[in-house]
Design brief:
The structure holds 2 protein chains of 2 kinds.
Chain A lengths: L3 E10 L4 E4 L5 E2 L4 E8 L3 E3 L2 H4 L6 H4 L7 E2 L4 E5 L5 E4 L4 E6 L5 E4 L1 E8 L4 E6 L3 E12 L2 E4 L2 E7 L20 E4 L6 H9 L4 E7 L1 H8 L8 E2 L7 E7 L6 H10 L3 E5 L4 E5 L13 E4 L6 E3 L4 E7 L5 E7 L2 E4 L3 E3 L5
Parallel strand pairs in A: 14-18, 15-16, 16-17, 17-19
Antiparallel strand pairs in A: 1-13, 2-4, 3-12, 4-11, 5-10, 6-9, 7-8, 9-10, 12-13, 13-21, 14-19, 15-20, 20-21, 22-23, 22-27, 24-25, 25-26
Helix pairs in contact in A: 3-4
Chain B lengths: L1 E3 L6 E3 L2 E2 L5 E6 L3 H13 L3 E7 L6 H11 L3 E5 L5 H15 L7 E5 L2 H7 L8 E4 L2 H13 L6 E2 H16 L3 E6 L4 E7 L2 E7 L8 H8 L1 H5 L8 H12 L9 H24 L4 H6 L2 E6 L7 H12 L4 E7 L6 E8 L5 E8 L2 E8 L3 E4 L4 E7 L4 E5 L4 E5 L11 H15 L9
Parallel strand pairs in B: 3-9, 4-5, 4-6, 6-7, 7-8, 10-13, 13-14, 15-21
Antiparallel strand pairs in B: 1-2, 10-11, 11-12, 14-15, 16-17, 16-19, 18-21, 19-20
The chains are: A mainly beta, B alpha/beta.
């Protein structure tokens, strides 16, 4: 099955410096802020327990400001003694970051702010300083890989046929904040242009691997690259390079166009928030075949099992014929199969 | 996989796999010894290194904590420098800040004397903290983690270690096993004084092919291809292959790509092994080399031989074997690696008589003789005995390190000639 209307969970990892986050049980919509925090600069280590003459174990109790709180320069952090006062004050404006085992404290200047938005309509099921999980019902298709930060926006068709590539000229600032369906292929040029025009994300059959390396860095792999940086977001539904979108994938995209959608890059999922009866979607299996030279991937339509044959590489194995091409049966797998 | 267990129970099916991925962070002191300690354990346990942090890491405390959080390690291997415990304590504090809320919490293994390790314990309060000065003990614990609930699972790396020991005992000398599979690459040297093992995952010619390119670079893979292909097209093939675990190369081009990936995976595994202080020179000098996994399953034995010779760059007289996952072991060839100044004469003594071969520097020659062969040379330091195997004696005078011409116009004919020497490609005639 390609598209499924079901209950999903999306994990949202949080950076260091959380200030507030949604509580467990709170209902959220995709795009709502579920956590906010501060980006921190280089932290300063200050002598704590040693400075005010306390055993390290007692330092936490004596702190007058909670770990994680924002402080201004001169704020009293801890104090001991009556006649001979010994005090610890914040040397800079910033955030009290950490208390060490030997009673020292780290304080870091605040250099920015961040927010994390939900990629699902649903309820918060886990919330701590490391992540917020949201569970909810949506239409979903799981792609091969996704790159960039999570994206939320209105699903918009950018092509008029599933075999078409999205041309850079089709992308302009009027599409800002939307998730565009890019057909069989989106090039690096389209990716960067879409990002510059404020497009939230792109959905396509594939994207050229070399283009992905240009945009996301040389160390990018086929597993995707979720991130928090200000970069374009793209989800490759089938493979790398160009991959025409088969009917069971493209038709629902057409039917769901205009609905709110979200790309969750860590799981390479496209969520679309529409009623369960939004369209008549194919419920059957979709098989994909990797070309004999690994250059492309295509949907398998009419096929015949060819028995065992010897390929030009001299590999002898079971074969499947579709159209004019014969591929090893090992190179055919269901769209659902996980890597 | 079928494994013989003796006369009474002739065969027994065992489940072989890599187990669940184990993400490790390596924390070590400023000296090489502590770095080697933790890197060796990670390599021996086939762990995926997700963070490498020395005590003199220039990143700030907050950046380190964020790096640990992003890495989400299952296990943290700590190799403390006894004289700089305070610097290591700072790293553990950053780990605590970054991963304190991680579920399950990362397990910390300190590889040190208990007295040194105990000083670090307070900095890691709240995280599982174990101390061991025994490397084997830590490797066993990490493998148990990878096995998880599947107690009956035989880990692929354990099997390779066993194969190396077995080959060493049957050949009576050092033995190297090279395994290149879909998602992992191993180089294990068995010697009288123990094993030197480097198991790298993810790194392979299939599902982890993209990691070979990410680590080694696309040009290092492309240089082995015997025909021109532009970088974007090659990268697309590698990425698509990575999405298809278990795919088979149907064309010669796809086969050549898998061979290129296997060579670079081996070379990269050796680089990592060298970086961890393993004796790579001894690996290259091992008189017996067994190739296993997908690299041993290429249709022609010559393809396995070429991949092993190019990736390993052996330095002596080496008998090469191969054993596919679903097949029997076979002797492939005897490789004689020599470095003449200009020319050398190689003397091959075998059951059929004695042959002399004049070898020029840079040449790559296959002499089709089988059976036991005694090798000696005039004009180069090489001497040894081995078995010619199915292909014969391969005299490799290309030099070490093996350098390929940079320009395609020179490189492609050279690589094609090496393939032709062994008839490694189907288009070059019958095997």
């Amino acid at each position: 099955m390609t598209w499924r209307h079901a209950r999903w969970t999306a994990q949202h990892p949080l950076p260091i410096g959380v200030v507030e986050r949604a509580a467990v049980g709170r209902n959220v919509n995709a795009g709502d802020v579920i956590a906010a925090g501060v980006a921190l600069g280089t932290a300063i280590r200050m002598k704590g327990a040693r400075r005010i003459g306390l055993p390290a174990a007692e330092m936490e109790r004596e702190l007058r400001v909670a770990i994680g709180a924002e402080v201004t320069a001169g704020t009293l952090l801890a104090r001991t003694g009556r006649r001979f006062l010994r005090a610890l004050t914040a040397p800079i404006d910033g955030r009290l970051l950490h208390l060490t085992a030997d009673g020292d404290v780290y304080i870091a200047p605040i250099v920015g702010r961040w927010v994390v938005r939900s990629t699902l309509d649903g309820a918060v099921t886990r919330s701590d300083d490391a992540r917020v999980s949201v569970e909810g019902v949506a239409w979903c298709i799981e792609g091969a890989a996704a790159y960039g930060p999570d994206a939320i926006g209105e699903l918009t068709l950018g092509v008029s046929s599933p075999t078409e590539d999205l041309a850079p000229s089709r992308v302009d600032v009027r599409l800002g904040g939307r998730i565009m369906v890019g057909g069989a292929r989106v090039s690096a040029e389209v990716l960067t242009r879409a990002h510059a025009c404020g497009v939230s994300g792109l959905v396509a059959g594939g994207a050229p691997a070399s283009g992905l390396r240009v945009v996301y860095g040389e160390t990018v792999t086929a597993s995707g690259a979720p991130g928090r940086d200000d970069r374009p977001t793209v989800i490759c539904l089938i493979a790398f390079g160009g991959a025409a979108l088969p009917d069971p994938i493209y038709r629902p995209l057409v039917a769901l166009a205009g609905s709110r959608a979200a790309i969750h890059t860590a799981s390479a999922r496209l969520f679309v928030f529409a009623p369960a009866d939004a369209g008549e979607f194919a419920a059957g299996e979709l098989d994909l075949a990797l070309a004999p030279d690994y250059a492309s991937v295509r949907a398998l339509g009419e096929r015949t099992v060819n028995g065992e044959i010897t390929f030009p590489s001299e590999v002898r194995t079971g074969a499947i014929r579709h159209g004019g091409e014969v591929v090893p049966s090992a190179n055919v797998r269901s769209f659902d199969t996980k890597r | 996989m079928i494994v013989s267990t003796g006369d009474e129970a002739p065969v027994e099916e065992v489940r072989v796999g890599l187990g669940r991925p184990l993400r490790v962070a390596l924390l070590y002191g400023r000296d090489d010894a502590t770095r080697h300690d933790v890197a060796r354990i990670a390599l021996a346990a086939a762990a995926r290194t997700c963070a490498v942090v020395p005590t003199d890491d220039p990143r700030s405390f907050g950046e380190l904590a964020q790096a640990f959080r992003d890495a989400a390690p299952d296990v943290v291997l700590v190799g403390p420098d006894p004289k700089r415990g305070a610097a290591m304590a700072v790293l553990l504090e950053a780990l605590r800040l970054g991963c304190g809320t991680q579920l399950p919490a990362p397990r910390i293994f300190v590889i040190a004397d208990p007295r040194v390790a105990d000083q670090l314990r307070p900095a890691a309060v709240g995280l599982p903290f174990e101390i061991s000065s025994e490397v084997g003990e830590v490797v066993t614990a990490l493998r148990a983690f990878r096995r998880g609930a599947h107690k009956d699972l035989t880990l692929r790396d354990e099997l390779i270690d066993r194969a190396a020991r077995s080959l060493a005992s049957s050949s009576g000398g050092d033995a190297l096993v090279i395994d290149v599979s879909e998602a992992s690459t191993s180089c294990v040297l068995a010697r009288a004084d123990g094993l030197e093992a480097a198991h790298l995952a993810p790194l392979g010619l299939g599902a982890a092919a993209d990691h070979v390119v990410a680590r080694a670079g696309l040009d290092r893979v492309r240089r082995w291809l015997p025909r021109a292909i532009d970088a974007p097209a090659l990268l697309e093939r590698v990425f698509n292959r990575a999405l298809w675990p278990g795919a088979l190369p149907a064309t010669e081009a796809a086969l050549a790509l898998e061979m290129a990936l296997a060579r670079e995976a081996i070379a990269h595994a050796l680089r990592d092994a060298e970086d961890a202080g393993l004796d790579v020179a001894a690996m290259r000098a091992a008189p017996a080399v067994l190739v296993t996994g997908r690299a041993a399953s290429f249709p022609r034995a010559a393809q396995t031989l070429l991949v092993a010779v190019d990736g390993l760059e052996p330095s002596g007289v080496t008998t090469v074997f191969r054993e596919p996952d679903e097949g029997r072991a076979e002797r492939v060839a005897l490789v004689v690696s020599i470095r003449p100044r200009r020319y050398a004469t190689v003397l091959l003594t075998h059951a059929g008589g004695r042959m002399e071969h004049r070898v020029a520097r840079g040449s790559f020659t296959l002499v089709p003789i089988s059976g036991d062969v005694e090798v000696s040379a005039k004009g180069a330091r090489v001497k040894g005995i081995g078995h010619g195997g199915a292909l014969g004696v391969l005299i490799d005078a290309r030099g070490r390190p093996l350098l390929l011409p940079k320009r395609d116009a020179e490189r492609i004919p050279t690589v094609l000639r090496w393939h032709a020497t062994l008839r490694a490609l189907p288009s070059q005639g019958a095997a």
